[in-house]
Amino acid sequence: MRTHRKTAIWSLALSLLLAVVITVSAAIGPVWIPPTDVAQVLLNAVVVPTAVEISGPIVDVTTQPIFQFRVSPIQQQIVMGIRLPRILLGAVVGFALAAAGTIMQGIFRNPMADPSIIGVSSGAAVGAVGFIVVGGTLPFGLGLRGAAFAGSLVAAFGVYLIATEGGRTPVATLLLAGVAVQTFLGAVVSFLLLNAGESIRRALFWLMGHLKGAAWPDVWSSLVLVAIPFALLLVYARDLNVMLLGEEDAQSLGIEVERTKRILLGLSSLATAAGVAVAGIIGFVGLIVPHVMRLLVGPDHRVLLPTSALAGAAFLVATDTLARSGSAEVPVGIVTAALGAPFFLYLLRQREVHEL
Amino acid sequence: MSDRWQAHDGQSVPMLSAEDISVSLGDTEILSNVSLTAECGSVVGLVGPNGAGKTTTLRLLRATLSPDCGTVRVAGDPIEGLSSKQVSQRVASTPQATTLSFEFTVRQTVEMGRTPHLSRFDRADSGDREIVEAAMERADVARFADRPVTSLSGGERQRVLLARALAQDTPVLLLDEPTSNLDINHAVNTLELVAGLAREGKTAVAAIHDLNLAARYCDELVLLADGEVRAAGEPGEVLQTPTLRDAFDATTLVTGQPGADAPLVTPLPDCEPVDQAIHVVGTGRQAAAAVARLVASGATVSVGVVPSGDAAAERARELGCENVTVPPFAGVDDNSRQRATELARAADAVVVADDVGDANESVVAAAERVVTLAGEGVSVVKSTRATVATLPDVVSGLATRQRQASDDRRVESREQQDR
Predict the structure, then answer these.
(1) What three-state secondary structure class fits B239?
(2) Which A residues, 254 through 273, put their C-beta within 8 Å of a C-beta on chain B?
(3) Domains detected in chain B
């Protein structure tokens, strides 16, 4: 029971933090909008359903805003049309990367594990850079993001297949297979970049990770692709706790270890792929946010998973605000690493981390 | 709890059994045709040298490893037919070593023992919490319930794992070296606890290194060596010098435990087997030690004449050696001297230890060969044929002499053949 209260309190606090960070972030830009005005715009967007009409297959939900503050249409347009999609996309991506990082560190019982440890990012890189360099069109109208998404899932599944023998996937094998495949895919990306010609700048920009040009459809699609696996991961949080005791122990406590591992790997790779596909390779979020949160709330994944995810969202929104508020936009991946690494080192000096 | 697992129609089915299990890891056969049974309410100890297959056996019994052939049954049901969850509701185990590296508190770790009884969406209720608290109390870890496991010593962690297994509340308990990191107090308490659980109707199988603790607390022992069962049965039947030499390749002396009806195994320095008849003359602790060493090295030992109640006489009686005793301070009668002299004459060598007394002069005189133990009272021996040596040297000297003798015989017989 204490666990649930702890989860609720921490999640609430971090949600509030996220709301504040989003509001402040939406205030910052070429045009400064006072955060109070931003808050009013945001609150105006909150709606409640008033009526639901079902006619055949069509479900028509009538909604009504709760608040009706008077706001300037220009501010309304800047916040809702330009800044908010990018901010929310950043939140979703940060949420996904931190959640997936938490899960991967748990599965591998290894503090160096990050969301792309089984090749998700490298696969996305090959997909995206290949799409940028080779050009052309993909089937099913898949664009750059589709190519990255597909690449990441193919790579992760490939690593999983390589590491699996006789229905068992030892994490050590998985780790090494992941490293080898990442190295190989890195070579492919380098080769593609060599022959990139004009498009090399676009490819590099993608590789460094950025949220530029985010639009509402991106927000909705990635939100769905992240929310569903995250909800399922929450259900498996207790199993992951038991898995931390070691696979043999977990099995004698009634966990179907191989199946659980498969599900956890699949879900977290899916969430990571959804994030990487829209934002490129943003390092460090999935590595340090789970670490920091583990120091704060302890190793219980029932608390750690939701709090890490929320903290990741806040962290990426904050860093992306920095990335876009300079005179020239910097890829956010550079900012996360440049800020995250020193902060992490500071924590290491403060509290020695011997183990996870 | 245990009633639930009683065999259906009152017919007695062993709680846990392994039938002819063999398993190989890679090209190495770890276990071959191992069978064992643990009746409801008993403690079965797995003993044997390092690498004998004790841990592997336990892994098979909790289904984290499947045998290549053979069947493990829990309450009559083949274990491979049960899901992980079903197995974990019947069999709890404490691992030998564990990766408790995350900063879970002791309570959180013990709570994980309830996992088998919770469905995915269940929360632990007050009943579960009571079981967890009781388990921590029994394993004596309640005092540090809120400390992180990482801050505990090895022995304390081991007890946390025991508490976790208790919280699992299963009819079968498997323990892999439950006392290996524990101090003597907690080692005894842990095994007392296991014995107590067995009296309550649980069944325990424990791999235990310490043969004496195993002998004291197990109803039955299974001695494994090289992946085979070398002996099985009550501790007294299993723990015997020849069996132990065969399994451990070690020299041991088996006596009785003070304070318990169980054999006491004392390991002695390795020595080559002495396959000879040795007569020991002398009294006191040195003579007693000589008797023990010689028996442990396989010699047929006789003792006398000694006053009854003397340490050497007691040891000889305990080890079942032929001995000639006389009442203390009564002097040596002719009959006794006669018998002792016969024994000395029949023996391959006579070992003289400590104070022999004049009465034994004729006994020593009858010996084909005399070895005298270095120490006090040596001067009493007037025989000029005596060599003087320390006890270990005496034992190894006898073994070497015996080997040389057999080598000589072999050479002789070869020479004869050549001719």
Answers:
(1) coil
(2) 254-257
(3) 2-262 (3.40.50.300), 277-401 (3.40.50.1220)
